[in-house]
Design brief:
5 helices, 35% helix, alpha/beta, nine-stranded mixed beta sheet
């Protein structure tokens, strides 16, 4: 099963992935990555990647990182995105479900990440992934056009319903 979750920024896509992970891991082997904000008080300083299996965290992007790879005011650690690609590949090999939060502009600066995601969605594997609401990236367009992909658009009013609907697809 291939599930893509989209929605406006701040609607709860990452929170949904974490909730799904917590519940699904009770019955399945689940791995993958989550992208989290790095905050100092109320100010967002950057983003980090969380390996769901090991709990290891490493930087994805920072206001203070000088890089030729940038998204807005953030310098992107493309080497770390490549590392996230390896985590996704490992998860696909050994787990029942792989979570990819997220397939976004920072992550897609890595050619390796883009190829890994496209390969993942061509396999007979269970994947739950998040994408940007208005992404026009060729990789995202290809994923959304796949016949076997279920696309959910998350909003404040349907978050709980979608959570339970996805769980039901895994017989929970």
């Amino acid at each position: 099963m291939k599930i893509l979750i989209t929605g406006l920024p701040g609607v709860g896509k990452t929170t949904l992935c974490l909730r799904l992970y917590d519940k699904l891991k009770e019955r399945y082997r689940v791995g993958g990555i989550i992208s989290l904000e790095i905050r100092k008080g109320s100010i967002r300083e950057g983003f980090k990647i969380l390996n769901l299996e090991t709990g290891e965290e490493f930087p994805l992007a920072s206001k203070n990182f000088r890089s030729k790879f940038r998204v807005g005011k953030y310098g992107v650690y493309v080497d770390n995105v490549d590392r996230a690609s390896d985590i996704i590949k490992e998860s696909l090999e050994k787990n029942d479900i792989t979570i990819i939060d997220e397939i976004g502009p920072m992550e897609l600066l890595s050619e390796k990440f883009s190829k890994t995601v496209l390969e993942a969605f061509s396999l007979d594997k269970n994947i739950i992934a998040t994408i940007h609401y208005r992404s026009n990236h060729p990789t995202v367009k290809r994923l959304k056009s796949k016949k076997d992909v279920i696309l959910y658009t998350l909003n404040v009013g349907n978050r709980d319903r979608i959570y339970f609907e996805i769980l039901s697809k895994f017989n929970i």
